[in-house]
Amino acid sequence: MSDKLKLENSQKLYAESQDLIPGGMMGIRRPYNFVPGEYPIFFEYGKGGKVVDVDGNEYIDMLCAYGPIIIGHREKEIDKAVINQMKEKGFCMSLVQPIQNELARKIISMVPSAEKVVFVKTGSDATTLATRIARGHTKKTKILRCGYHGWHDWCVEVKGGIPKKLYEDVYEFEYNNLEQVESLMKEHGNDTAAIIVTPVGHPLAHPVEMPKPNFLQGVKELAQKYGAVLIFDEIRSGFRFSLGGAQKAFGVTPDLSVFGKAMANGYEISMVVGKKEIMDVLVKEVFVSSTYFPNSLSMVAALKTIEIMERDNILDAVRKRGEIFASVIEKYLKRNDLPVEFSGAPLMPYITFNKDENGLYKKLRNEFYTQLIRRKVFLQPYHHGYVCYRHSAKDMKYAAEMVCESLEEIRKSI
Question: Is the pTM of this model over 0.90?
Answer without folding.
Answer: yes
